[in-house]
Write a structure and sequence with these properties.
Elements (H helix, E strand, L loop, with lengths): L2 H10 L6 H15 E6 L2 E8 L2 H14 L4 E7 L7 E10 H9 L6 H8 L3 H15 E3 L8 E5 L2 H13 L5 E5 L2 E6 L2 H11 L2 H51 L7 H12 L5 H7 L6 H17 L5
Antiparallel strand pairs: 1-2, 2-4, 3-4, 5-6, 6-8, 7-8
Helix pairs in contact: 2-3, 2-6, 8-9, 9-12, 10-12, 11-12
Length: 308
C-alpha cells in the first residue's frame, strides 16, 4: 500500500468532529472530485474513488448530515492494477439541491469560503477532504513531496491560501491544464499532516525522516573525514619526496638542526600526524611549528630544482 493510501485510510477513520467540520470536509471532497448530474428537474451527485475507506467516509458524512438517498456502485478498473473503483451516488431529488446549497457548491468559491471555512477547525477539515479526494504524499524515505491536483484554478488558489494561513511554505504551479498545490519541505509536510489530523502518519514520517537525516549526516561526516585524510596523506607523500630529494642533492646532514630533526622524524614516521610529530620533537613546539618546518623543507627542495 502506498504511503498516500495509508494517510487517507487514517483520515477516513477520524470520528467525533463537529457538524460544521463535516460540511467543511464534504466541501473539500466534492469540490475536488465530485460531479453534479441532472435528471429532469432534480440534481444528483456522483463521487468516485479507488479507496474503499474514503467511499465509506463519504457515505457516512452524507448520511449523518443530510437525508439523502445514496447507493454505491463498484466497478473493476481496466487499468493495469485492476483496482476496484467505488462510485458513491446520491440519487436525484429535491433534497439534493438543498444539500448543495448548504455546502455552498452552487455558489462561487469566495462565498463558499466565507460561509463554510470561517473557523480554523473547518479549514482543517476542508484540507483533509481536499487531500483525501485529490492529494498524494511521497514516502519520507525518498524526496519530500506532497501535492493536491485540481483542474479549477480558483479552487487551487483557495487550497493554497488556506494552507498558507497555517504558516506553511506552500507553492502552486500548472501542468497540462491542471493546477498543483504542493509542499516540498519535510517540516512543512509534517505540519500539514498535523493540521489535517494524520497523527500516526506524522509519527511514521518523522521516524523515517530522523533516520534518513542521521544517515545523511553520518555520510557527510565520513565523506569529510575521508577527504581530510586523503589531503593529509597527499601532503605527507609530498613532504617525504621533498626530504628525499634534499638528501640526494644536498644531504640531510647539511640542514639546520631543527629542520634536520623534522626531516628525520617525517621519514621515520610517514603516517604520523602533525600533532604526533610535534609531540616527538625536542623542545617546545606545536602543530603549526612543525607544519612551518615541513613547508620550509618543501621550499628548500623546490629551490634545489625539485619539480612537482
Amino acid at each position: 500500500m502506498s504511503f498516500s493510501n495509508e494517510v487517507k485510510n487514517e483520515l477516513a477513520r477520524i470520528e467525533g468532529q463537529k457538524s460544521c467540520c463535516d460540511k467543511g470536509e464534504l466541501y473539500g471532497l466534492l469540490k475536488m472530485s465530485g460531479a453534479i448530474v441532472l435528471s429532469g428537474r432534480n440534481i444528483g451527485i456522483h463521487f468516485s474513488t479507488e479507496n474503499a475507506a474514503l467511499a465509506r467516509r463519504m457515505l457516512q458524512l452524507l448520511k449523518t448530515n443530510f437525508k439523502l438517498q445514496t447507493e454505491v456502485v463498484i466497478t473493476r478498473s481496466r487499468r493495469l492494477k485492476k483496482n476496484n473503483r467505488y462510485q458513491v451516488r446520491v440519487l436525484p431529488s429535491p433534497e439534493v439541491s438543498m444539500a448543495l446549497e448548504t455546502l455552498q457548491l452552487l455558489t462561487n468559491i469566495a462565498e463558499g469560503k466565507a460561509k463554510l471555512l470561517s473557523s480554523s477547525c473547518c479549514r482543517r477539515a476542508f484540507l483533509r477532504g481536499a487531500f483525501m479526494a485529490g492529494g498524494s504524499v511521497s514516502r519520507p524515505a525518498g524526496d519530500y513531496h506532497l501535492e493536491m491536483v485540481t483542474g479549477n484554478y480558483e479552487f487551487a488558489e483557495l487550497i493554497r491560501s488556506i494552507i498558507h494561513s497555517f504558516s506553511m511554505p506552500v507553492k502552486m504551479t500548472d501542468r497540462k491544464g491542471e493546477y498543483i498545490v504542493y509542499l516540498k519541505e519535510g517540516n512543512a509536510i509534517t505540519s500539514f499532516l498535523s493540521v489535517i489530523g494524520a497523527h500516526h502518519a506524522l509519527m511514521e514520517f518523522e521516524n523515517v525522516r530522523i533516520i534518513k537525516e542521521m544517515r545523511n549526516n553520518v555520510n557527510r561526516i565520513v565523506n569529510c573525514e575521508t577527504a581530510n585524510l586523503n589531503k593529509t596523506v597527499q601532503a605527507a607523500v609530498h613532504q617525504i619526496e621533498s626530504i628525499k630529494y634534499i638528501g640526494e642533492v644536498l644531504g640531510i646532514s647539511k640542514l639546520p638542526a631543527t629542520l634536520r630533526e623534522t626531516a628525520e622524524m617525517r621519514l621515520a614516521y610517514p603516517e604520523a600526524s602533525l600533532t604526533e610529530l610535534a609531540d616527538m620533537a625536542t623542545g617546545k613546539i606545536g602543530k603549526s611549528g612543525i607544519n612551518h618546518r615541513l613547508k620550509k623543507l618543501e621550499q628548500i627542495a623546490k629551490d634545489l630544482g625539485m619539480t612537482d
